[in-house]
Structures are given as structure tokens and as C-alpha cells.
Amino acid sequence: MNWDVYLPGLAVLLGMAVPAWLASLRLGNVNLVDSLWSLFFLAAAITYALQSPQQGPRSGLILILVAVWALRLSGHLALRNWGKPEDRRYRAIRANHSPGFAWKSLFIVFGLQAVLAWLISLPLHAAIISSTPLGLLDALGVALVLAGLTVETLADHQLARFKRDPANRGRVLDRGLWRYSRHPNYFGEACVWWGFGLLAVAAGAWWALVSPVLMTFLLLKVSGVGLMERDIAERRPAYRDYIARTSAFIPWPPRPAVSSKAREASS
Questions:
Q1: Residue numbers of the domain that contains 108
Q2: Would you say residue 263 has pLDDT above 50?
Q3: What does the buried/exposed string (b/e) look like for 54-78 if buried means 16 or more CB atoms within 10 Å of the residue's CB?
Q4: How many domains does the chain have?
Q5: Is the pTM of this model over 0.85?
């Protein structure tokens, strides 16, 4: 591995994390790390391209795909969080690490996400510098990135539109993509990274599959599905029926509805 290229990438991401952390101190709110997350990857990809002595046929393709994904997701999250109080996830972290959370957040929120993004971004460099000709696996990778981006964007749009309607307060979105998956946005995100993984594999970097595996693990067990659903059934009882009939991650036709009384009787 070419650490002369990788380590400057880490330095750039940490350099982005510090001013964002300072801004969060002024705001008293760490929500902005959400919109910074995808920009870490764009900055890493640009750094790898600028630092590499050679660039292969995938270089421009990778930069364009990462830019479209990163700017779309960052803009969406920035608009979603604008003027909102700190997300409950971060309020819980703040409570668990107080006193002194203001200083600790540099490491456990901003620094941690910068390091994770750097680790996940490493295969991008392999794809950027490879001179291996483009082939079928590249086409599959691009198709998977675009499919994931489409699913993610549509799911975010459907959820935002649902939340804007006051009549939906307290209700569960179970239409559109959300009829087939409880987290179609996270599924789309995973597809994007498996697509990037295929592009890196096509460039000869088989080890690159570690990146989408790690991202999928984070989406399922750490910052995504697992965290979102930890206590949601207690806060929103209607979500229990939604869980019973709807796939958690991979879109799948919903199961027949089972009433709460029937479920209690069977148990």
C-alpha cells in the first residue's frame, strides 16, 4: 500500500474535522457532522487523484460518481438538519460523555468519523491509479452505484415529503420504497459502496471488498438500522406492526399484516 498517498488523505480529512468541530462548539450542536460525512470521501478521492503519480481510466469516473453521491447526500442532510435541535443520537452521546463533551466530541464524533471515512475510502485510490482497461465488472460497478444513488435519493425524497405533511404526525411511512424496506435509504447507500468496491476489484484490488463490508456493517449494526430501531417500537407503537410485515434492509414484498391481538394470542 502506498502510504505516501494514503496518509495525506487522512491529514486532509482530519483537517476538515477540526474546523467543523470548532463550528459545532459555537452552535452547541454536532449535527453538522452528518453533512460532513460524505464530503470526507470526496476530499479523499480528490487528494488521491492529486497525489498519485499516475491516473488510470477509472480516475475521472470515480471522481464524478463520488462527487455526485457526496454532494447530493451532504446537501440533503444539511437541509434536513437546518435549524433543528441536536439529533437524539448525539444528545445521547452528549449525555453519556458529559461533563467535557465539548472537548471529547473532537475525538468521539468528528475525529472518529474522519478516520472511518479514510479507512473506507482507501479502495478509491486503487481504482483511481489502476491502468487495467475498463471491462464488464466496471460496468456492473457503475450500474450498482447509480442504482443505489437512485434508491437512496428517492427514499429520502419520499420520507421528507411524508414528514412535511402534518397529518402524518405519529404515523409510519409504509408507502413507496418504504413499503418494501424499513430502511431503503440505507440499502441504497450500501449499494453505492458495493458498486465502488466492484470498481476497485476491477482495478485489481480484491482487498477493496473490505470497504463495502465495513460500510454495510456500520449501516446495519452501528449508525444505521440497529441504532434507529433500538427503542423506536417503544416510542412509536405502530412501528411494531411495520417491523412484523416489512423487511429491515433488502427490499422485499411485505408479509401479510398480523394484528397486535393475534400476535399476542399466538405468543
A1: 1-131
A2: no
A3: ebbebbebbbebbbbbbeebbebbe
A4: 2
A5: yes
